[in-house]
Amino acid sequence: MSAGVPRIALRGDLLDFTAAPAWGDTESAAPRYRADHWLLIEQGRIAGVRSDPPDASWEQHDHRGRLVLPGFIDTHVHSPQIDVIASYGSELLDWLTDHTFPAEARHADAEHAQAGAVYFLDALVGHGTTSAVVFPTVHKGSVDALFAAAETRGMRLIAGKVLMDRHAPPELLDDVDSAEREMEELIGRWHGRGRLAYAVTVRFAPTSTPAQLALAGRLCRADPSLYLQTHLAENRAEVRWVHELFPQARSYLDVYAEAGLLHRRSVFAHGIWLDDADRAAIAAAGAQIAHSPSSNLFLGSGLFGWRAAEAAGIRVSLASDVGGGTSLCLLRNMADAYKIQALAGERLTAWKALHAATRGAAEALGLEAEIGSFETGTIADVCVWDVAVGAVARRRAEVARTLHERIFAWMMLGDERNLAAAYIAGRRHVDRPAA
Ligand code: GUN
Ligand code: ZN
Fold first, then answer.
1. Measured distance CA(26)–CA(391) in Å, rounded
2. Helices (H) and strands (E) in the chain — how many of each?
3. How far is the CA of 231 from the centre of ligand 2 (A)?
4. What is the DSSP string of 190-229?
């Protein structure tokens, strides 16, 4: 994969995590901050960290004064929805009908899907995200296009054909038999190939018949290395609809659990409208919630109970959920997450947010040996950030008294314009001049 990539030494202020920070702890020992150090990358992997410069056999990339972090991991994002980001005027169900489904229908065209996949992945990396869990569309070609584009870039990507066999426009519907055939073909082609993995991708309970949910469950049971991704309890009208469609289920989550879709590799986007029994079940399964803050605010979905989820023992990761979300940049989503917690009377530390987008997400996905930190032997997916862009942010950084204060101001004020460089498996994909 990385043959021919030189030995690289990145100089900068290295920040990663050795453990999960506790809620509210700004003085946490979990972040590992190594000011003005060298990150060594060999054959696309982290080879070590040192405080003094390595010898001339290493290609030196001098990012002095910049923050160097593991690339962010976006655990829930829709590749075809770049075209409907920032669409005015509705909550979830109308937004799907008015904006999202028409955009996804255009991906029936293979050329459109291919161009869209390339555009999407380049945009993702340009926003500081080097790994993602992605919804393409119901079309097999959109899945092939996305995986192929990720493979070309050497990216860690988890995705799968969107399943929906009811309650969507006819051009977006599949059926149980064709879905089974296509999934088997796609899993055979992509699952476990390089850095790619397949996720059984149920859009959400309302758009799959019980027979299709059962098919998804059978696949998960047959191969526990498959991921499962879907939406869960995002919006109140959606939750009511699920209760109407599945009157026998105790809760929305229960629909998935009964179908065999609640397991260690399940990624549930949102999880806002849950009760204690749901939270306990998600925690017991070891599944994760992909918290999508900018989407939750933009679509008016609700305030995610991060602290309750954590208290229940649920793994919480961070996601953009573009196009419901308003930025691919996870920094912007962290700022929104902070504001959501503030509205709920809680405080989200920068440590908690950054951990959720790096090591926390990697652990939730079972990929901590590959991504999310600077541990030796992990793959060198690395992003380099300017601490401040613009006069106000620069001033704020200058007067910060503690490390948390400085990093928090970067998190709240920064976005993709702060991204100076991005490396995927040691290859540079973004390289911007100093701000
Ligand atoms: N629920 C079902 N589909 C979607 C989607 O595309 N975006 C969001 N945010 N929620 C959904
Ligand atoms: Zn979504």
1. 26
2. 16, 16
3. 6
4. HTTSTTEEEEEEE--GGGS-HHHHHHHHHHHHH-TTSEEE
| Residue 38 CA to ligand 1 centre (angstroms) | 41
Q: Which of 368, 374, 389 is nearest to 423 (CA)?
A: 374
Provide the β-strand partners of residue 135: 78
- Residue ranges of E strands in 52-139: 59-70, 72-78, 129-135
Q: Is the CB of 234 under 6 A from ligand 1?
A: yes
Between the two ends of the chain, the Cα-to-Cα distance in Å is 32
414's CB contacts (< 8 A; 6+ apart) are 331, 385, 386, 387, 388, 389, 393
Cross-strand partners of 15 = 33
Ligand 1, atom 11: closest residue by C-alpha? 231
In whole angstroms, give the CA distance from residue 281 to residue 431.
Answer: 44
**Strand 382-385 vs strand 419-424: parallel, antiparallel, or unpaired?**
antiparallel
Q: What digits encode the pLDDT tens for the residues 44-77?
A: 999 999 999 999 999 999 999 999 999 999 999 9
Alpha-helix residue ranges (DSSP H) falling in 246-318: 252-258, 276-285, 293-298, 306-312
Model confidence pLDDT, tens digit, residues 1-21 = 445 558 999 999 999 999 999
Quickly count: other Cβ atoms within 10 Å of residue 107's Cβ. Answer: 26
Q: Do 266 and 288 contact (CB within 8 A), yes or no? A: yes
Q: Ligand 1 centroid to 207 CA: how many Å? A: 11
Model pLDDT for residues 321-353, shown as the tens digit of each residue: 999 999 999 999 999 999 999 999 999 999 999
383 C-alpha to ligand 1 centroid (Å): 28
231 CB near ligand 1 (under 6 Å) = yes
**Would you say the CB of residue 100 lies under 6 angstroms from ligand 1?**
yes
Beta bridge partners of 163: 202
- Pocket flag, ligand 1, residue 371 (CB < 6 Å): no
Q: Under a CB-based contact definition with an 8 Å cutoff, are residues 360 and 337 in contact?
A: no
Omega cis (within 30) before 323: yes
Quote the mean pLDDT of the chain.
Answer: 97
Nearest ligand, CA 81: 1
**In a mutational test of the pocket of ligand 1, which residue from 83, 84, 203 has the highest number of ligand atoms less than 8 Å from its CB?**
203
